[in-house]
Amino acid sequence: MARFVKLATLGDLPVGSAREYEFEGRIYALFNVDGVVSAIDGVCPHQGGPLADGEIEGTSVICPWHGWRFDVRTGSTPMGPRIKHPVYAVRVENDDILVEVP
Ligand code: FES
Predict the structure, then answer these.
(1) Which atom number of ligand 1 is nearest to the Cα of residue 66?
(2) Which residue has the higher pLDDT, 44 or 79?
(3) Fewer CB atoms inside 10 Å of the end CB: C or N, the chain?
């Protein structure tokens, strides 16, 4: 059953930054774009690149390994509609960043 768990604090994730977190064997990439925190699966579906290490352009992250691009808020990619990267709901409560994990 999905539930919200604390993965980070706003202090860990300043505006413009990204970080990777592991929880129960799953890798999450958290982004703070213009003060909006979002969370996606941290593993690139192409060949497993670390998306939290990618360059951020607007609301997109560019995988550091081969350049696939994902919107960090929707999981969509210009690679086409057949690839939909997992996105996880985020709640910010005071300084805590809570992510809805499966
Ligand atoms: S592993 Fe991400 S683009 Fe290849």
Answers:
(1) 3
(2) 44
(3) N
Q: Assess whether the C-beta atom of 69 lies below 6 angstroms from ligand 1.
A: no
Atom 3 of ligand 1: nearest residue by CA position: 66
Question: From residue 27, how far is each of 21, 24, 34, 61 by CA, in Å?
Answer: 6, 9, 23, 16
What average pLDDT does range 63-81 have in this prediction? 95
pTM: 0.95
Q: Are 7 and 97 in contact (CB under 8 A)?
A: yes
For 3-101, CATH number? 2.102.10.10
What are residue 52's phi and psi, to 5 degrees?
-65, -15
54-68: pLDDT as tens digits: 999 999 999 999 999
8 Å CB contact between 40 and 70:
yes
Q: How far is CA 39 from the centre of its chain?
A: 3
Answer for the pair 93, 9: CB distance below 8 angstroms, yes or no.
no
